[in-house]
Here is the input.
Amino acid sequence: MAIQLITDSSADLTPEFQQQHNIQVVNLSVNWSGGETCPPGNTAFYEKLSTTKTLPKTAAPSPGDFRAVFDPAVSRGDTIIAVLLSSGISATVQAAHIARAEMAEKDQIFIIDSRSAAMGEQILLLEAIRLIASGTSAEDIVAVLEHRRHDIRFYAIVPDLKYLKMGGRISSGAATVGSLLNIRPIVGLEDGVVASFAKVRGTQAAYLKLIELIKQDGIDDSKPFFFGYSYNDDAMRTLEQLCLDAGLPVQNAHHCEIGSIVGTHAGPGACGVSFIRKQT
Here is the structure.
């Protein structure tokens, strides 16, 4: 009996990675007002996002979308492990649970709330892939992932406050003042919800503050470390070099292009990191 890994499109897996590891992806949707759908491909999406006056709406998959991937896997006799976008920012996990409840073979389906997104989901998927290859049982894999998810850290530097303003994360006044003062917020996920970790003046100061946050957490260098970017990887490359200069163990880091689900709120030009903190 095989283990079928499933995730959602917010994990931002490349098609090559999906195919290599036989991971099924359930799509969230992104639509502009008036029903206009998200243009295909990250480049077209970010080019449109950079000129829009209103953010597109992101929506979780339906239970039916999950049934479309659950049913064939269960029919094959597979055990399903679904690693999904944090329930603190999306109804994706809820939809998966509804789909599971409708099925007679629900004991074959394990749903994991990653408490993270994008790169954080990828960290758990890589851990699952490693454990599957070692012959670990589905139940033990789930136990490891549910433990590990609490140690995932996810930080990002947002270069343009207008996307946080349009998304309701900050007020128009705060966005105006922040832009005038060249404020660079560092945001991320804490306990599965979006949180603000720092606000500093200037991009260089933001890089250094993010490195400080990484050092405070400590890196479990036996686990994957991710750098991520939205649309343009210049900021990510600068951050990566500064992390190397600071002596952080990121020589073998993975890189992730952030897609439309997280990118809707971060905007183009954002950069960030995700990793598992060092155990104390």
